[in-house]
Amino acid sequence: MRTMVKGANVGLSTLSEDVGSVVVSLGWSSATGEGDADVSVLLLDENGKVRDDTDFCFYNTPLAGEGSVQLLGKTPSADGDEDRISFDLDAVPTSVDRLVVAASRYGGARFGELDDLRLTLADSSGEGLLSFAVEEAGEVSALVFGELYRRAGEWKFRAVGQGYASGLAGLATDFGVDIDDDAATEAEPAESAEAEEAASPEQGLPAVPEAPGSDEAAPEAPSGATGATVPSPRSAADTATVPEAAVPVSRRPRTARKKVTIQRTAKKSLAETDAWQPARLFPVPALKNDRERETRATSVVLAVMAQVPEFGRRLTAGFGAPAGRMETYTEVSLPHGDTPKRPDGVIRVERAGKLWTALVETKTNGNPLKDDQVQAYMDIAARRGYEAVITLSNDVALEGSPLVSVRVDGRRKHKVALWHLSWADVVHQAQMLIRHEGVGNAAHVWILAELLQYLQHENSGCHGFHNMGAAWVPVRKGIDDETLCVGDPRAMQVIESWERLVRQVCLRLGGELGQKVLPLQRTRRGVDPTGRRTEQADHLCAQGRLEAGLRIEGVPGALTLTADLRTGKLRTSIEVPWAAQGYPLSRVKRFLRQLDSAPADLHIETLLDGETPGPRGTLERLRPEPADLLPKDGSQITGFRLSLLKGMGSGRGSAEAGFIRSVDDAVHRFHTTVVAHLDTRSAPRGRSGEAPTGG
Q: Distance between CA 506 and CA 509 in Å, rounded?
């Protein structure tokens, strides 16, 4: 992988032959694990300006350039999170000359508060081609990481690393975007000041100094033009609070067609009795064995991908597939030595006369992927010039811990990418589309709803990660009788299963809420995923606890999940910051009123400045005596910790009494009965842009 320095540029074709489509990842980390930013892309013409409002790709408009640019969202990485962007360079309109990749922070946060600001670019096979680390971002709230641009018929990349103190508004203005000031109306003073500053930006994008070895000068920064219209920079959660009457609809960038989502309340049934079962597009009761489940599941998913373009694109964009006409096939016979091979499916996408093809290998229930099967499909794909092999199973892939082991013949000129999808990923994407983001028409909504009904049926075999593995029972027994030693390899197996379970919990909760829910990866800089898991395995052996944090978009702090294998208890908790207005007792009463529908056994602890423990008690006891939450010595309150305890399942599976089911239930109960009722709109912001967690 080539390391870029500020101002350097390189032709993509010199790094790889598979650069018709690329994926750019922007990453950062913070001390708390909660700092975040919004990614955006501007499509510019030869004059350095957007052509119209559709050339600004951001959180409200994740597609641009006729589908050639797509924001893929966040994915966990070893050092925090990464925001990925898919570029189908072969399909970028010819009138687009440059693609500017940027990110912005909100609520007064600055990039100087984040660590490890970095950009990486990978080709269509998933191989990393280049990386660029941004040094000393400083007090800027918008940052241009780099740009892709045409030169002499090929695409090149330039490392930029320049910032805007005026935020996304200042950046957008420089590239010909009009700021909709009405959309910036907000009670929070920090954002109002930022919007005023953005109206007359003082800092533009200066010319990037040439790095040693650069073959051309950086283009001059654009300044002061009018064109498309965008709202002032803010998070997706913040935009939801802007009154509809204050937003001039005609001046905001929107998708061209109205999106359709599933109805919130079901229509009254016309059935005579509840025993009548509705007719289903994908019936499941007749499935009798794993082979039938595997064949049916493959056919159902591939058929829906081809018929619902938004869904098919969501599942394949991250694998380097272009945005084009998709056709899918099942049980295709392909020659392989003396015995033909029959992959479970084939996906083909045609765009601008070029064909992208992937083989699909599917497993259902607890059946694992087989190394020899996947190896054979990788060899076939390489010989036939296919771009990828996609595996689909209930397992969850982890960074640094591949599900299958395959050999890559370095003598072959054509590279094949190996990608994995969990059935939980498929369910999550369908939920996000039909319940929250919307698709093109009502028929597509109905098809996706039928797909969800099929995948979530007990007979489908597509239930996601549902087995903690063979090491689960021995590790629990070793913790009970204190014979589990640090370094036991079985502890590492449990840690990997725990990480898979947490990622799946995030997908399920995110699908229900329509918000980003990501696992927190708190780790020291430079520690790889295996090193991080080794530390967690040693902690499990010594303390007998599994721990994880979930970051929910729009919620300050993290939802913390702890499984104590010694006591058999699951603890879900969150730290809520101390409100800034009013008398202490009045503030405590307002806080407790938010918890009217919370369980009586909710545990509340007052967090104080310093190491001194604060008052604590159950909600049932504190409701009539709210003053008991106030410290008697007048210590400074920083927040409250809310916790629920429940018994955890002992079995390794997802049955009613299993550990996996108990974790799912604990997170769901805590969010619906506690977190969902907390008013975090006026929570004070920390230095990373998130509300402080106290303690």
A: 5
Q: Which is it for the CA torsion 537, 541, 543, 546, positive or negative? A: positive
Distance in angstroms (rounded) separating the CA atoms of residues 589 and 97: 58
Tokens found for residue 60 = 């409200």
Using CA atoms, how far residue 588 sits from 467, 556, 557, 673, in Å, is: 43, 18, 19, 19
Question: pLDDT tens-digit profile of 524-577?
Answer: 555 678 888 999 999 999 999 999 999 988 787 889 999 999 999 999 999 998
| CB of 323 closer than 8 Å to CB of 317 | yes
Tell me the pairing of strands 2-4 and 142-151.
Answer: unpaired
Q: Give the closest residue to 552 by CA, choosing from 334, 88, 236, 104.
A: 236
pLDDT of 381 higher than 50: yes
pLDDT score of 234: 40
- Tokens representing residue 41 in the block: 């892309």
Say if CB 17 and CB 101 are below 8 A apart: no
- Closest CA relative to residue 554, chosen from 611, 600, 510: 510
Highest mean pLDDT among 232-246, 277-291, 462-476: 462-476
Tell me how far apart the alpha carbons of residues 190 and 168 are, in angstroms, rounded to a whole number.
14
Query: Beta strand pairing status for 21-29 and 80-88?
Result: antiparallel
Q: Are 679 and 664 in contact (CB under 8 A)?
A: no
User: Buried b / exposed e across 38-75, counting CB within 10 Å, b at 16+?
Assistant: bbbbbbbeeebbbbebbbbbbbebbbbbebbbbbbbbe
DSSP label at residue 220: P
Instruction: Please give the model's pTM, rounded to 2 decimal places.
Output: 0.76
**What is the C-alpha R_g of the chain?**
26
Nearest partner of 686 among 537, 558, 581, 584, judged by Cα? 558
Residue labelled with tokens 């241009």: 144
**Residue 182 CB-density burial (10 A; 0-12 exposed, 13-18 middle, 19+ buried):** middle
Report the distance separating Cα 321 and Cα 388, nearest Å. 9
CA angle 688/694/695 to nearest 5° reads 130
pLDDT tens digits for range 299-327: 999 999 999 999 999 899 888 888 889 99
Q: What is the mean pLDDT of residues 355-361?
A: 95
Q: Distance between CA atoms of 234 and 444, rounded to whole angstroms?
A: 31
